[in-house]
Amino acid sequence: MTRICRLIALLVLAFPISSFASGNDYNIGAGDKIQIVVYGEEELTIEELYIDSSGEFDYPYLGQLLAIGKTTEQLKAEIIDGLKGDYLVSPKVRVGIVEFRSIFVNGEIKKPGGYEYQPGLTVDKAIALAGGFTERAARKSIYVTREDKNEPKNKVSLSHMVSPGDIIVIEQSFF
To answer: Which residues of 3-39 are buried (b: 16+ CB within 10 A; e: fewer)?
Structure first.
């Protein structure tokens, strides 16, 4: 039985929660929920950790760690470096995203508000989550503002990919 448990644990470490969530291109942000697993060390494993606006959290033996702006791989490397030597000989760590921060859909849609991000989400799917267009919606005047960029809103098409934290605004039509 213990061999099966070890095999399952190794498989869990080998395969991240989501391919997008473990990629080197996704930066952890406020509103994300992450998971930190240290194989064989229950007291160092955190099943679900909400990242607040400070981006900092207390981690056993290492104290305050900053998660915001780091990829899951960067945070994993920081935890491995901190635990290696004094606490563990060769720590096996996995960091993954359990839940992404919300996206927001505003303007001429039936149910404006915040919605849970899902990998592969496009503007048209986000609009569908928000109940669809109203009768006055300008279907070609859709803008996205990225949470992590200091850019003005960008006009986009319905097939535009959405990222966690994005704000989508559908303008009103004059006709």
So the answer is: eeeeeeeeeeeeebbeebbbeeebbbbebbbbbbbbb
- What is the dihedral sign for C-alpha 110, 112, 113, 117? positive
pTM for the model: 0.75
The 10s digit of each residue's pLDDT in 30-53 is 999 999 999 999 999 999 999 999
Q: What domains can be seen in the chain, in order of their start residue? A: 2-99 (3.30.1950.10), 103-172 (3.10.560.10)
